[in-house]
Fold this sequence. Notes:
Elements: H1 3-26, H2 29-45, E1 55-59, H3 65-72, E2 76-81, H4 84-94, E3 101-105, E4 118-124, H5 133-143, E5 144-154, H6 164-179, H7 191-198, H8 210-218, E6 222-226, H9 230-233, H10 236-241, E7 248-253
Parallel strand pairs: 1-2, 1-4, 2-3, 4-5
Antiparallel strand pairs: 5-7, 6-7
Amino acid sequence: MDIINLNKDYWTHRAVSYSAQNRAELFSDQKEKWQDYLCETLKKHFPDKEPEQINILETGTGPGFLSIILAEAGYNMTAIDLTPAMLKKAKENAGEFSASIKFIEMNAEDLQFFSNTFDAVVTRNLTWDLPHPDVFYKEIHRVLKPGGMLINFDANWYRYLFDEEAMTGFEEDRENAKKKNVEEMFIIPGGEKMEDIARRIPMSKALRPGWDIKTLSALGMKVKADETIFDRVWTDEEKINFRSTPLFVVKAVK
Length: 254
């Protein structure tokens, strides 16, 4: 199978367990941390607009976490995902907000929207998993309105497959999780399938967010990255499990 279908197959099987993770976030203090950060960022960028005046696209919504917390805050949300099983879980997780979010099955590298449609695009842990992330960024640039903003949360996932130093960090994270008696969050059933996919896609080898800054800047976007965002939105358990691959956020304006 090609990468698209491999991904679709993998995430179909992960839908139930991944949704459980997202639901736990929705009913924890983490929801407010993520929601506060996103709302602060959007309000700062769109000071003269109310949430209901802002149209946002979430790419790779998975079980729907970002779309749900932004819909709850009053934003107009469109959420896409490649995997029907994930969209089904996202609708279930959205509960009372499901009717106010447009859930659509769609490939993030081939967005079926007119150009200059959205005020903002948000995404979390998607870009690393794409076969053509440069194409994805071109599509994001196309569908954003002039002055629109991309907010992309991601990390250097699976770089340990190609980098000795990253592998050392990865192994130390596993040991620290054991020593501190916290839940192992990286080693999961079927994880070898994801490693197989990661070996075939370009972002596993990239140095990020440097790659993202360079690629988005080449499209004419104004780009900033924050490599400390993990400290604000991650749990203590996440910080232990993923110390060597900290979450960053890239913000780019068209």
